[in-house]
Write a structure and sequence with these properties.
By secondary structure, the chain is mainly α.
Length: about 210
């Protein structure tokens, strides 16, 4: 093999390290997704390295190359859920109509739960303290988003004038979070559950 052939046979150093890093990132994301899927089925407290490895389609030995224990996987999962929450806020705020924003909030929260993606609020209760702190700001931001929507809707006349956004916003937020457990088991009935939840929220604010 000539030097030129050799150059084409293997990536250059920087490219090789970049490719390896991307592979590790993809594999880590795959493992975290598998862990969230299992958590959606059995809850975060029942997670085990064996269950995560099986869901990810890898051996326990391979799993331990990426994460030392379940707690480490949960911390990475918490960070991922936090990123999802930030993206979720962007989607909701892209709408200008206050009730449409609440409607999107309900849809995304319940659809995510059906797909096995627990929200920040759902994960916080089961996470160890140091991992829980990684979610607190994100969960608070989503709750504050609902309160902001309530303030805006009351201000522009879309919602009842007697609403108290700081209180009613938190009630709406917790109502939807509470419906996520139902959504995780809804299957084909999810559209009906979403419709009823949206109607319930409408009765609370209009």
């Amino acid at each position: 093999m000539t030097d030129q052939d050799s150059a084409h046979a293997f990536p250059a150093g920087a490219l090789w390290h970049s490719s390896l890093s991307e592979h590790k990132t993809r594999q880590s994301e795959h493992i975290v997704h598998a862990a969230l899927t299992v958590a959606g089925d059995v809850g975060t407290t029942a997670l085990s390295m064996s269950a995560i490895a099986e869901a990810a389609g890898i051996s326990r030995q391979t799993l331990y190359k990426y994460f030392a224990d379940v707690e480490a996987v949960l911390k990475a999962a918490a960070e991922r859920v936090g990123r999802m929450d930030e993206h979720f806020v962007e989607i909701v705020t892209s709408e200008s109509d206050s009730f449409r924003q609440l409607e999107i909030f309900v849809n995304i929260m319940l659809e995510a739960a059906r797909e096995g993606h627990p929200s920040s609020a759902m994960m916080e209760a089961a996470l160890p303290l140091h991992a829980r702190r990684a979610l607190e700001a994100h969960a608070g931001r989503v709750e504050e988003l609902v309160i902001e929507i309530m303030r805006r809707g009351r201000g522009d006349g879309s919602f009842r004038s007697d609403l108290e956004p700081d209180i009613d916003g938190r009630i709406v937020y917790r109502t939807v979070v509470g419906s996520q457990d139902l959504a995780s088991r809804a299957g084909n009935d999810l559209p009906r559950l979403i419709s009823h939840t949206v109607s319930a929220v409408r009765r609370m604010v209009v």
